[in-house]
């Protein structure tokens, strides 16, 4: 087992040295401490090689130590592509490397690097795009080589969820800018949410050195945290990633297994900036890392990043890094400054005073690897002679650590999602953000402010601006902060004739790959991205966007502002599908009788968000159950739960006038105590719903609607009356009533036992009448309906009585052998009667003429919704019509949607389609409804239907209904 | 087992099957869960309670407000506000001209029955069907905004949603009316939802409450 | 997610609302030409600028009107429909004497 040797406190902010942790990496045991990331624990044991690169399988090690690069992607048992510099070590954790052939240390695919000149940028695209079919041959091989990580197919889902968080101000990032902004806002009385990606607050204060003495950051952080952590108005989320910005400050923040949906009146993004690498040959070797990665290793984890370092820098921060390294006992061979002079003489002198060689106007031209490219061994340093060019004389420094800092790129992703625009300042060689939406502000280094005291002021400035819109500013005026510090070197790109000068580590893209893309005509940075894949890897251009913009601008003679960066889209960092999919709400509705159906063994089916019994019995016995239930209704008595049927009440002096305007039929003179069929067309003249209108009183209608259509019908009614201003009250009473249809020759006998206060005689309660009374003491509305074509009663009761109604009907019906039937059976029964179901037998074009519903349209009234369109359409030659058809028993049964053809020729046109089709035991043949061409409607004629497998069957057009043509049974 | 079961009445709560451990008592001709294994302390911590059988009523129309005033009920000044009577009834104003009256736990909803006995004004006041169209579920305890934040996108923290506030909004993706009130100083969010979705909401709320130690309570836990 | 200020319920997530199309004047359905009617039913101006739209707050069943800029998606104003629709609408009456009364 490898053991950790660590630096002394106060190094190691994140680790608890009293709690050692053992884990495995690539089969070997390692030890770290609680609080260590996998990468820091491994580095503490001298293990630097963490992964192999995507394309060339080059060894890679820690680059940012902040979860910002793809070098640290590793495999856990249950999860691929985990960031080793984010994921904490735990006892017994079994970690594997990814993307290698053989072993991580001896990857046989590393040979691919030698073929890189045969795999130029766009290689896959260009090689396999043509000829047609080439991709099919190569796909398997390429996929095997290309994928990252292994999925655990036995993975058990875990509980992920979501919650809203509401605050006046959300501050993204808890560096000095974020902390000062949060404090300022909270002190003024705003409720503040502070979101930090790292496990501790402080941002750069936790690792960066701001002064020669190295004291400022710690002291400041201590002071700020003491105020923030105690503050009643500040809620803190650490280890939490703000992964997007959506309109009106709606921010998804992922912490652990929860996604917070944060809604804030004001948003201050103090997301800081990403330190940028220098492009030179072999800049990807393990041991070469951002300056901030080296200081993070020391300050966060007390890990020595190396023994002998070279610092390559384009700003003064590199000097401070050198001082930090020296303080921790690391030899610094040289500070290589790409600029001609340091900005601060004091800082440069302090480094020189420690005996470190400082070379200004120089760069690292090439890093020299150990065998197999496993680690940096030395660097070749040369004088910069011109933009991107170096002298031929070289100096070599042996080292096992190279810290680099070419400057910074604002963490712009959230802000560009919000519509912010990036502008490149040629003098500062830096991108800045503008055109942010109101109520979104930026502070600190993301705002181009870098000096520590300026950063603190900038945080306060942003907070004061936010407080103004919140009305909490108390007259305080926000003062613009001016920071003169330059942190970016303008051309930290040193192409090497032998390549391996990486611009994008994730995708193994070298400087020449980007330039070549522009030479092939891909001038737009978006096209360069798609062609070369730059920025498409897990780090999403955090380090490649800036050098790519510079290279493309240079190669195409444009400014960097004109070139820009590719579009930033959420999520900012990779998120699991579980975070998006976790605890999704999928509402269901149950009728009052739901549990009775389950107890009776119903096969349930969804109808919208309702659950309804399809039939009672085993799923595999569908047809037998359905036919038995149907025969029972035809011969005895059945009962079906129709509670899901929509119900709308219209009350008031204008109720009848309103009905008359909404539905196609005439309702002004509908008698009280009678029902009437109600068809609804939309303004296009298309049939969109139907139901039964009951007139309870002169000014009181109760109208049913389809299960799936009622919500829309109700909304449309409300909208129409917002315009018409009729004196009518409209209420959706769907859930207020439970209902059954008691149907069959014996239904009257059952009801007679229960409804003693209603005259149930055929004369007293005839077909299509409406009555009110009591059923076993339950107040009920009764409708004599004929949907299934038998003597029948719809019984509507207040829904809290629904289950009791079901129970008393079952009990009273026992002596008549009552049996429940389901929706599928009902569909068969109504099909036998030729009754349409709107939305099953209609589509987005069905006008009343096609459905033979002319009888249900009143031409005598001045208006109904859709009237004018119906008139126009009906005056045109018709093209299709819904007809009934039969097929002999035993014929291959057409399904809904099967096509009706103009003839049996192979070149026949499609003239229509089947909408309903079942075998009917009562009729003894297959029956159905289908749209057919207008020339195919003659009763007795045949038309072809193409069924499964391409077979064609010949259906015969018949008169409707199929069963009981005189409709005698329902009128009994 | 208590002698009273939900199925001994023809009126039944929409969620009575979720209350199998309850001791029931008769309320308005139906069974209401009076006691569960968790009592008053659970109500203070995090409780969920089914009040669906407790009487409630509603009126809509230009004369609805005056109808309530005639019944001596306090009419809230603005939509989405609730007032409470001395007896404990809640009067909800859902729009300019729509009002709901929710019965008091203390008198088993007798006050609402009295309102329903009164004749409606001749015009412009229509009785609503909220006893049947809606279920009445009440969350209680110290974590109401945090529990609701897991199912609802409206800020229900006390600063934004003080006692007497109403929100008509989706919760767990179904439409609800949420009322912030107190019963015997216990913080309550009463929720009125589509009665057909009551079991769904019940299960969703129990799931959301789990991390706060939420449990089912009976009406006696409120006193 | 965008916030919609509802005249009845205050600012809410726009997912609580249902879009109801532009507010448009219906031509007189008995006197307008087929073309006018077809344009009313099928055509949309789809203009870049401020449009007046119907929106429904689903949870409270409340229809209102919003003025929205289709380019910036800014919601400029929302209000009750009674601001526009002030009076009862009548349709020109024809004879209803022969209406069936079955």
UniProtKB/TrEMBL annotation, chain C:
It comes from the Bacteria. Gene3D superfamilies: Folate-binding superfamily (3.30.2270.10). This is Sarcosine oxidase subunit delta. GO terms for molecular function: sarcosine oxidase activity. It holds the Pfam family SoxD. It comes from Oceanospirillum sediminis. GO terms for biological process: tetrahydrofolate metabolic process.
